[in-house]
Amino acid sequence: MALGSISATTNQEQVPTSDVDGDGDTDIHLGSEWLRQESTGTFSTQSGVAVSGGEPDRVVLADIDGDGDLDVVIGVEFGQPLVWGESSDGAQAWTERVIATDVDYFSVDAADLDRDGDVDVVGGAHQGNGEVYVCENNGDGASWVTHTVDPGNSSLIDHHDGTQLVDMDLDGDLDILSIGWTKRSLTMYENPAIGGVRSTSPDWSGTGGTTHRRMRLRWRQTSVEGPKSHRPQR
């Protein structure tokens, strides 16, 4: 396999791939721009989301508003906005929609955590207190309720390349896996709903400035691998 450059356009780190424009081939999204694969196999740079602060760094593709096309969730470096970009007109237009602005959401992922049919977002703070929040989608991305998974100030973890959603214990629900940069531990937040059954315990309450609604999940933090020596900050 020959190694070559497909584009001089890039972002800080995370680059998700999928069929962004629905034409049957695989494209690449960078946050503020995306790379459309042409019929020749080459890539052309297209405008993405004009983010209101910071530099797009963590990028996840998901249908946030449930309209059948792919939107994009963006966490930034050197800023605090956690946003999603609404795709329209065959991915030719992107509109920034703010999810939260309270911490440096450097790690993000998206999936239907509460099984209500829409896509929720999880974010972890980097170079701060190491908070982890789940942002519950109230249906079409127009409003969000924030739930605390980890209030931060942990000696174990910040969230550099983390808060990834995966069913680690194979019990049918999504857990959160995270890795740090200066606090270099691998940490799992276990969702202990057995067999994928929602917990009825009111463990979280909304803090997003909208009507409170329980997300019926619980979380238990586990250090998979202890802290290592620190790396230089970035």
Describe what this molecule looks like in 3D.
- This protein is mainly beta.
- It contains no helices and 16 strands.
- It has strands at 17-18, 27-29, 33-37, 43-47, 55-62, 71-77, 82-88, 93-100, 105-111, 120-125, 132-137, 144-150, 164-166, 175-179, 186-190, 220-225.
- The strands form four sheets. Strands 1-2-3-4 form a four-stranded antiparallel beta sheet, with no helix packed on it.
- Strand 7 and strand 8 (93-100) form a beta hairpin.
- The chain is globular, with a radius of gyration of 18 Å.
- The model is unreliable at 194-216 and 227-234 (pLDDT under 50).
Q: Would you report the number of β strands?
A: 16
Poorly predicted spans:
194-216, 227-234
Largest beta-sheet characterization:
4 strands, antiparallel
Identify the overall geometry: globular
Query: C-alpha Rg, in Å?
Result: 18 Å
Helical stretch count?
A: 0
Q: Structural class, judged by helices and strands?
A: mainly beta
Task: Give the amount of beta strand, in percent.
Answer: 35-45%
Summary, kept brief:
By secondary structure, this protein is mostly beta strands.
